[in-house]
Structures are given as structure tokens and as C-alpha cells.
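Page 47, continued from p. 46.
Same chain as before, 503 aa.
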Amino acid sequence: MSLALHLPALQVVLPLISAPLAVLLRHGGLAFATVTAAAWTAFACAIGLWLQIGQAEGGVISYAIGNWPPPWGIEYRVDRLASFVLLLVSGMAALVLPWSRASIEREIPRDLHYLYYAMFGLCLTGLLGITITGDAFNIFVFLEISSLSSYVLIALGRDRRALTAAYQYLIMGSIGATFIVIGIGFLYLMTGTLNLADMALRIREVENTRPVLVALAFLTVGISLKLALFPLHQWLPSAYTYAPSAVTAFLAATATKVSVYVLIRFYFTVFGESLVFDKLPLPQIMLWLSLIAMFGASAIAIFQDNLKRLFAYSSVGQVGYITLGLSFDSVNGLTASIVHLFNHGIAKGAIFLLIGGLVIGMAKAGAVPPAPTFDRLAGLAKRMPLTSFGIVIGGLSLIGVPGTVGFVSKWYLIVAALEKDQFWLVGAILLSSLLAVAYVWRFVEVAYFRAPPVGQEARCEAPLALLLPAWLLVIATIWFGLDTSLTVGSALDAAQQMVKSGR
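Result:
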């Protein structure tokens, strides 16, 4: 029996098994080896699935769990969009886990290391499961697995405010999950199935009924809370600021992106374009909320004193760009959303890993790493040149400078706006990028044009174990900004497949 046929199951099962093993081992080193091996194997499975999609009939791989054919049994369903997101999630886990091996020594008590790896394995399981499942209720189950483990991961931060951030995330995340499960319940009530493909067929007969519209509303609000769409983003800044650095990097690169994927999946696969974009004012609502996020969150970022919090608010603004692409209801708009989902994950993952490295590099031996406030960053470029330069490159991507992945995303957003003759939106995209210039310049000005504090002139670059994974993402930020065959090619194929299925 060919192992390649079971890649969809292995994608989820291996990280899931690694989590309880990490708890049973109760040893940080062994738990690290177990979960990291599972993450790298999951990444290999994701690559295999991405390659198989090109040869699959109709561009879709269907895997029946327990050989029960859908819709009677649970189906894992992989198309071009799912395979693209699987690459991002598993790839980020494969890089963040080795990075976290060195970082958590300073950020998490040693006796909790095995618990950190167990929760990381569960979080990875949940995110991969959300992406690959073809069952609506399974989406909710995997969403809760990833969310509950995320709450624990955030709470592991040494700062007491991490507990408050985790509690706030728990409350808002539970509200979002409740909205999602209510929406799924209404869909099951009207269609009698939980299989997404089967649901998409049956919903055409009842798409104008009130319960279906209520389901759409509940799912939109619940998923928007999970993806931190303004004004449902209040959980994100504190969660990213006070969580351990590895947790911040992984969640910033993957969690909100998977939630965007779920929104796209329900909009185009289940409800269909005609209901979401033609019969309801959702595009207009999403357009204005996206613009408020792009300008409002970016403006708030400018005035932050903590570098992690600054880039946390930046993430809220960047989510606005992703949802802006959805509002266009076009192949180019959806391509922009999907490619920015991937590109922003890479760039923001690199930035938060580098910030974690500078925090650890600034800490005195045996001391708790300090918060990366701007008064501590003066002259950082002289002390930590590689870290500082990497953050600048990541910042240039957020601005959208040519040669970085951020430029590719904004280029397709502008193309989508011009395609709809919405020239004023082109100006809005460019103007909002100037706000990114302002908050990135704050770091540049402090790190490069201020003298270091007295007694801290000596060079103290982050350890190689922290620099290497972060710089791999920095290089990817430039590489995929110059060679877009993988990112734009996959995003365009996925957008065309989604739009075709939604009509």
C-alpha cells in the first residue's frame, strides 16, 4: 500500500501523536525531538500533497477516513488552496520549533518545557486539521484544539500580563467559536449534511431562506473574530506582546491566516459567490472594515513604545489588506488575498523571530529577557547588525517595497482595484503604506541613528541558533518577492478554482 495515498491522514495524525508523547516523556529534550520530527514530517507531507495536486483529477485529493465514503464518513479534502496553506503552516512550525529550542531556555521555566512542546504539537494539529478537513463540524473541533492550546502557549510567558492576555483571548475566542458552531448548526439544519462539498450542492435549494442567511452572519462574525478583523481584534495586540517569542512568531504567521482560509472556504465552497457577493452587502461591509483596519491599526502602531506591540498592531492592519482583496469578488482580488496570506506569514514570522532574538541577546545572563521598548533599542544596529537589518527587510516588505513579498501582494491588490475602476482604492492602498513607512522608520531611527546606552556599546548579536531560522525567512521574503512562480502561481490557481466552485 503506497504511503503517498495516506499523506492527508499523516499530515494530521503525526503532530497529534507527538503531543501526548511529549507529555508522557516529561523531558524537554525528548519532547523537542518528538514534536520537531513530527513537524518536519508534516512539512514533507505538505510538499508531497502540493506536488500531487497537479496530477490529481479536477485538482482535488479526497481521502475518506476509515474508508467510509463521503458524505457518510469524514473526508479530508485537499485542493490547491488547502495545499498552499498547509505548506505555510507546516513550514513555519518546522522553522519555529528549532528556533524555540534556544529561546524558551530564557523565556519559559525548564519544568514547563515539555508542556510547551505538547501544546505546540496540539496547536499545529489543529491548524493543519482545519485546513485539510472537508467536514464542517471537524473545522470547529480542530479550531478548538488549536485555540485551547494557543491559550496555554500564551499563558506560558514569564510576564504576568501573559495570563491576562491569554484570558482575554480565551473569552473572545470562545465567543467566536460559539458563533461558528451556531452557524454550522443552522447549515446542518437546512442541508442535513456536514460534508462541505455535499453541503455546497444542497444549499443551492435553500440559499434564500432565513436560516441560511443567519448561518452566514454567524460564521462571518465568528471567523472574523478569529482572524482579528477590525473591530474584533482586541485580543491580538496583548496576546502577541506578552506570549513567548516563539509563540508570537508562530501564531502571527499561521493562526490568523488559517482563519482567513476558513472564511474563503465557506464563502466560495459552501455559500457561493452569488449569495455572499451579489445578494448581500458583505463586500461593502468588508471593504470599509478593511480600510479602517489598514489605516486605524497602522496609525495606532506608530505610537507604540514596545516593538512587539507595534508589529502586533501592524498585523491587524495587514489583515485588512487580506480582507480587502476578498471584497473585490474577482480572481485578481482573491489572488491578492491568498498570496498576501502567505507572504505576510513569512515576513511577520521573520520579524517576530528576530525580535525574540534581540530580546534574548539584550538580556543579562540568567535574567528574564526585557521587553523590547524603544529606549532599550538605541544603537541596536551597532550591537546586533544582522538582527537589525533583518527587521528592516521585514519592515520593507510590510511597506510593499519592490523586491519583497509585500510588493507582490499590494501589486495584485492594485490590479484588482483598477479592474473594478476603483481608482480611489489605489490611492488608499498607497496612502496606508505610508503609515507602514512611519512605524518602520521609528525602528530605523532608534536602531541606526541613536547612540547606544552607556555601557552597552559592545556587540552582543543573537546566538546562531536564533539567527539562522529567522534569516531563512528573511531570505524567503526577498526570494519570493523576486520569483513569484510558487506563490503567485499557487494563489492564482487556487483563486480560479475557488471562483469556479463558487458559481
